Amino acid sequence: MGAAMHDIRLIRDDPAAFDAGLARRGLAPVAAELVALDERRRALATEAQAAQARRNEASKAIGHAKGKGDAATADALMAEVATLKTRLPALEAEEREAGEALREALAAIPNLLAADVPAGRDEDDNQLVHEAGTLPAFNFTPREHDAIGPALGLDFEGGAALAGARFTLLRGSAARLHRALGQFMLDVLTDAHGFELVAPPLLVRDEVAYGTGQLPKFTDDLFRTTDGRWLIPTAEVSLTNIVREQILPESALPLRFCALTPCFRSEAGAAGRDTRGFIRQHQFEKAEMVAITTPEASDAEHERMTACAEDILTRLGLPYRRMKLCAGDVGFASARTYDLEVWLPGQGRYREISSCSTCTDFQARRMNARYRPEGEKATRFVHTLNGSGLAVGRTLVAVVENGQQADGSVAVPEALRPYLAGTELLVPA
After folding, report:
1. Number of domains the chain contains
2. Domain match, 52 and 154 both
3. 176, 256, 370, 394: which one is catalytic?
4. Is residue 290 pLDDT above 80, yes or no?
5. Cα–Cα 20 to 30 A to 346, which of 48, 297, 315, 382?
6. Is residue 222 very low, low, confident or very high in pLDDT (cuts 50, 70, 90)?
7. Which domain holds residue 99?
8. Is residue 260 located within the same domain as residue 370?
């Protein structure tokens, strides 16, 4: 399944530092256990090598003993070789098992956090980086999108009738607005920010979901097909794995990919959260950004990527804020994450609309994705980053709530009008 996601040599050299890194996430120390697993694996490897060497040596000595007519020695040596012959496969199997145990233990451990990630337990401890845009003023009480939406074609009952809870049918104006938003996002990412447009598979194999960190830990969050593939929970999975098992020349970096895809999530842990409306769905569309770069450039790339997502919100005239996630709220594969939260006047609060993360070399190790620095023989792991630019459904919610008029119609942001044949107002049916 690719390399281990944490370098066991670094853990061996400084177990205390590794445990201190996990403690920032509120996790118990594991370095001693990992080092013990690694020592067992190495001891078995050494024993297997010694046994193999002795077998070769004894096999040669049999010929000598026979040549000298020393039958007793030859017989003893042959018995020893026979014993070694059965012992070796057992040793090798034990070594494989020890290696597998170590890999499994490492696979369940999240990425270590960047030094600048603030301490904290949950989203209440996230830090405000900046706010942008002006909150809209209404001369009426603004409504939530699930009150305005149905007259525009957000058909919650129709979606539930077809597929059950957390599915929505979009019709007419809502469907056109949804399509316009997706196309607008792709155009901004490709034309203004130089991302390469990709149309990736929506179904992936085990090792691809493993590479970005969805497997083995988040099996319950994914939908699996009857032939053992996984429906992608985000295009990040397909896009990041484009470089799996590759050695790229440094001159090829950075690579920047974007895609607009349906995303599928079982929302296993979200019982009772956002059950109304269009915020949390089993199937939703998202424009995704992925960057592959060198370790030296990844912090700057993280700022750039987040700014690209902010640019989309600015062009749509949507007020938002950037939050830096605290240690307790950063995702499994991420070393640092910025969330962009858009203002929803109907809810009277900010809601997440984009998450931009640097995964340092965590995913690269799992995918065995490397590059060769200019003029060097040795290779290094790339750094991978991903971010939403943006979640289309949540952006639609924000456009509807921020653009709402007293009569239930919705003002179309100027940037979107060319995508809607010049329409300035979506009128309820």
Report:
1. 2
2. no
3. 394
4. yes
5. 315
6. very high
7. 8-107
8. yes
Q: Indicate if 355 belongs to the active site.
A: yes
Provide φ and ψ at 184, rounded to 5°.
Answer: -60, -45
Give percent of the chain with pLDDT exceeding 90. Answer: 84
Q: Out of 244, 265, 336, 370, which one is annotated catalytic?
A: 265
What is the Cα–Cα distance from 384 to 371, expressed in whole angstroms? Answer: 12
Whether 409 contacts 425, CB under 8 Å: yes
CATH number for the domain that contains residue 331: 3.30.930.10
Catalytic residue among 238, 298, 354, 355: 355
pTM listed for this prediction = 0.92
Classify residue 76 as exposed, middle or buried by CB count within 10 Å of its CB (0-12, 13-18, 19+): middle
| Residue 280 a catalytic site member | yes
* Rounded Cα distance, 348 and 350, in Å: 7
**280, 315, 321, 380: the active-site residue:** 280
Average pLDDT over residues 397-410: 97
Task: List b or e across 168-187, with b for residues whose CB sees 16 or more CB atoms inside 10 angstroms.
Answer: bbbeebbebbbbbbbebbbe
Q: What is the spatial distance between Cα 303 and Cα 111, in angstroms, rounded to a whole number?
A: 19
Cα–Cα distance, 186 to 289 (Å, whole number) = 10
Active site residue 394: yes
